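call fold(seq) -> tokens
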Amino acid sequence: MLEWMLEPDIYKKMQYNPKEQSLEKCRNFIKESWTDKRNLHYAVTNGTGEYLGTVSLKNIDEKNKNAEFAIALHPKAMGKGISVAALDAIMEKAFYDLDLNKVYLYVRSDNERAVAFYRKCRLEYEGCFKEQLYLEGEYKDIYWFALRRSGFESWRNLIDRR
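ret:
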């Protein structure tokens, strides 16, 4: 996990500072994922069990029935349908197991690859927060996307889940 989190092509469009990442932080993230009920993190693996990334539901709000989606994949896993399969699996968990009504996400507007992925996956664009993040001396806009339970089944029929 740490190895590819420190790759410039990965972190340059994310919200974390690579200088603050460490093996200890990665280990703590994994340990906390075993017990934290408000944040669910699942390993994305291939057929041989090789770790390819993490898919998450964060900030799970039982009262308002929503959660934030996040995904981070190793570069070698990108463009192979793995992210679509992980997105589908975590949405199924959100709407069927957790009985959520909405799953939302935000992404930097300049993260073209991620924005294209969410549009391709037909997540609903909900708007732009201008100059929401201050990173490395610059303000960055973020886009908000979501999927609601009421549209989940029809959404599943539209996406290609290889």
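The chain has one domain: 2-158.
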